[in-house]
Amino acid sequence: MSMIKSNIKKAALLPLMVIAGWAYASINGNGIDGSVIANQGTIGKKPLVSDAQQTPDLKFKDENGKTISLRSLKGKVVFINLWATWCPPCIREMPSINELRKTFKDNDDLVFLMVDVDGNIEKAKRWMKNRKFDLPVHVPDSEIPRELFTGSIPTTIIVDKQNNIIGRQVGGADYMSPEVVDLIKKLFNEK
């Protein structure tokens, strides 16, 4: 009987975590409309944060089990999306991320890290394949600092060529907005 109560408590906790994440995003102005994409600013309303924060050397495993570190990607723009297959705002923003990747498919200076926070890479790969998304799936291979990831998903982090965090979005967004596309283009031109 106590096993059943424990499973019921766990099942009830998941929706509460999702609701708490949505509430946090709403309170902090991170609406599902994608208007916010920075640590302290908004694209299209305020300038993006100017004092970039150095990125810790995060590590992720790819679909083949190979570890990729952010330091090894210095010289490239990195788009990190922390998501899960069961997360409604993650699902909602995924088509725009897929379109963003298609837009820059010929540019080797942009790396997409679609990080399944559940750590189930096989399930995440099937999910992407079933929806015909061409996005590379990864799982965390190191701890992600709380300053970058509070547990609310989706969370997107954009890193410039010098390994500086230049944008962070908590909550769903439209990544095909002109502001995001222009930001990526601008980052390509920086040294």
Describe this structure in words.
The N terminus is likely disordered. The chain contains 4 helices and 8 strands.
The tally of domains stands at 1
Shape label: globular
In DSSP terms (H or I, runs of 4 or more residues), the helix count works out at: 4
For CATH, the homologous superfamily is named as Glutaredoxin
* Distance between the amino and carboxyl termini: 62 Å
- The name of the CATH architecture is 3-Layer(aba) Sandwich
Counted beta strands: 8
Q: Report low-confidence residues grouped into runs of 5 or more.
A: 2-51
Q: Which strand order does the major sheet show?
A: 1-8-7-4-5-6-2-3
Which secondary structure elements does this structure contain, and how are they paired or packed?
Layout: H1 2-27, E1 53-54, E2 59-61, E3 67-69, E4 77-83, H2 88-103, E5 110-116, H3 121-130, E6 137-140, E7 155-159, E8 164-170, H4 178-189
Parallel strand pairs: 4-5, 5-6
Antiparallel strand pairs: 1-8, 2-3, 2-6, 4-7, 7-8
Describe the structure using short key phrases:
eight-stranded mixed beta sheet, globular, disordered N terminus, 8 strands, 4 helices, single chain, 191 residues, Glutaredoxin, alpha+beta
